[in-house]
Automatic annotation (TrEMBL):
A motif (Histidine triad motif) lies at residues 91-95. This is HIT family protein. SUPFAM superfamilies: HIT-like (SSF54197). Residues 4-107 form the HIT domain. It comes from Rufibacter sediminis. Pfam families: HIT. It comes from the Bacteria. InterPro entries: Histidine_triad_HIT, HIT-like, HIT-like_sf.
Length: 136
């Protein structure tokens, strides 16, 4: 079954990618809770995150940690919150949300609608922070 995430992985649907390797992909959520909200997914199409094999689950979180470090440098915030909900898209994914207050992680809040240029600017800042982090 093709999902929006499998279409992003294949390139059928564009995304504001911030980091990618052969097994994982991180990109901006197009319906973010706050500016800089990132989704991290395995490229393997598994619906439920806890159906991933233990090593892939651990590697997904290690990849998400790398993204979170760059995200925190690129988007001013106190911390980067982490959530796994898994009901919106039947493909395992982790939400990374820049937080300055606990309500920033409230998934009942109205979602933001950012313009394409603003999304690309945020994605570019995160990519640059990740490059800088990798170089240190």
């Amino acid at each position: 079954m093709a999902t929006i995430f499998s279409k992003i992985i294949s390139g059928e649907v564009p995304a504001y990618k911030v980091l990618e390797d052969e097994r994982f992909l991180a990109f901006l959520d197009v319906f973010p809770l706050v500016k800089g909200h990132v989704l991290v997914i395995p490229k393997e199409p598994v619906d439920y995150i806890f159906d991933l094999d233990p090593q892939t689950l651990a590697d997904l979180h290690t990849f998400a940690q790398k993204v979170a470090v760059g995200l925190k440098k690129a988007v001013p915030c106190t911390k980067v919150g982490v959530a796994v909900i898994g009901l919106e898209v039947p493909h395992a994914h982790v939400h990374l949300v820049p937080m300055n207050q606990i309500s920033d992680m409230n998934f009942s809040n109205p979602k933001l609608k950012l313009e394409a240029d603003e999304m690309e600017e945020v994605a570019g800042k995160i990519r640059q922070a990740l490059k800088t982090e990798a170089g240190s």
